[in-house]
Amino acid sequence: MPVVRPLGQGLWEVRSSLPRDRIARVIFCIVRGHMVLLHGFLKKTQKIPDEDLALARRRMKEYER
Known about the structure:
Strand order of the largest sheet: 1-2-3-4
Number of strands: 4
Number of helices: 1
Largest sheet: 4 strands, antiparallel
């Protein structure tokens, strides 16, 4: 799987593997040619939790103003 993948609606995910078999994710968007990091977390399940996606979407809307 690629290191960066689209999540839809303008959101992207960067994957990172950490020591001790931990997995980190950073959700970002592109606003006016700039990469805006919206949310980072340690992943505990296969699916990105809905509350993490909702938080990233709310933060993205703030930057789009």
